Amino acid sequence: YSGQLGDFTTASRVLPRPVAVLGDRVQAISLGLWHTCALVAGTGAGETNVMCWGDNRFGQLGNGSLTSVTMPVTVQGLGSRVFAISAGVSHTCAVVGSASAGGGVMCWGSNSQGQLGDNTQVDHPLPVEVAGLHTGVRAVAAGNEYTCALTMAGGVKCWGIGYRGELGDGTGLSQSQPVDVK
Hints:
mainly beta
C-alpha cells in the first residue's frame, strides 16, 4: 500500500520479489507498520548503513523528507558503523559505533510520545541522538510509540509512551528520555 515492499510499486504481492537496489548486501531487516528498513553493507571494509522505504509521513525513513518512496533510500547522518536497527510503528532507531564496546542510539520519525528519546515530542525526519545513550548499547527495539535499549552491562532502558506500563519503570507515565526498567 505504501511501497513497503521496496519493488518500485504500491501493489500487494502474494509471492516474494527482490527489493530494489539492495542485492546481497543486507545484514538485517526490520519492519514498521507501513515502512521497512535494512542494515546494509557499505562500500568499505566493515562499513554499514541503513536504507528504508515505504510510508514516510512522520520522517521514519530518515532521509530528511516526508515523502513516501517505493524503493530504498539511505538514512542520512548515521555514519558508517551501524550494527543494529529496529523499526517501530512510525519511527526507526539504530545503534551506531562499535559492536564490541557498545554503541549509541539514534532515532528518527514520529515523536508524539517521546519515542525518539531526545527529550522532546517533535517529529524528526533525520536521526537524533537519544539522550544519555551515546555509548554502551548492545541492541534496540522500537515498538508502538516507545523504544527500549539493552545496555552492554545487561540493563534495559526505555522511553516513549508509558501509560500501559510499556517503560517498566513502575510509574505509568510517558518519558521523552530513557528511564531504567526496574
